[in-house]
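Hi there. Long-time user, first ticket. I'm pasting a complex I've been working with (about 259 residues overall). I'd like to know whether the download I got is complete or cut off, because the file seemed smaller than I expected. Thanks.
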Amino acid sequence: MKTHKRLSYTERAALCTNRMAQQLFSLLSEKETNLALSADVTSCGALLELADKLGPEICILKTHVDILTDFTVGATQELIKLARKHQFLIFEDRKFADIGNTVKHQYQGGIYHIADWADIVNAHSLPGPGVISGLAEAGLSKQRGLLLLAEMSSAGNLINSDYTQKTLRMAEQFPEFVLGFIAQKKIANDPWWLYMTPGVQLTEGKDTLGQHYVTPARAIQENESDIIIVGRGILQAKDPLVETKKYRQAGWDSYRSAL
Ligand code: 5BU
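Hi, the file is complete. Here it is re-exported in full:
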């Protein structure tokens, strides 16, 4: 039986020193949604349409900019406008995983200029703290935030509990820049870390390529994560807006009943 009381998002916002975590915890509580949409589509038109239609229901829109076949900088400017209009943050799921100098270029330069439009990005801790320092050099002055991958949702991944705990130790060295983790469950007792969980659908199961799904209730209530990330559960539904509302409700109810 759990003896500790779960803190609300508002209480957690007050305990954060990381500005992006503060902003996001406040957003969750004000907008009453802990749903992140994984907008895994391959055209800018489809991405912007989803952002406009589903934006009112979500706290975060997660992108994979490198699967867009018709990327333009203009599309990212439109996406920022929609993020402001509907009050969500943009998270580019880039999973940086190289030496600091390289990731800095990948983050701020190239074709995508990710640091110019993504509020949040993520990185593997595998290369060591240099990956965070490199990203921080490009992101901190723009008031961006970083999530570290502490766990993955895919079957057979090589992350073990030692790796997860070492990832936490690494995050602790960068409290200004790292706001939390991509994980399947809460990994530390400190209330200021924010957790986002991918691999979520309304029924547990898997896909044909190793993805493993848990329900919103398992992610939020049982595993004490903060935000559910949903892609195909919504994108492949007959009516994505109806489905988004179902996930929003399920995520929010799980949070409320855990308090
Ligand atoms: P799905 O369609 O809900 O399975 O999409 C999940 C998304 O989350 C997809 O964009 C993945 O790249 C992303 N993801 C994941 O599924 N599992 C992980 O451990 C991480 C990211 Br990190």
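A couple of notes from our side: Residues 9-258 form a domain with the TIM Barrel fold (CATH 3.20.20.70). The mean pLDDT is 97.
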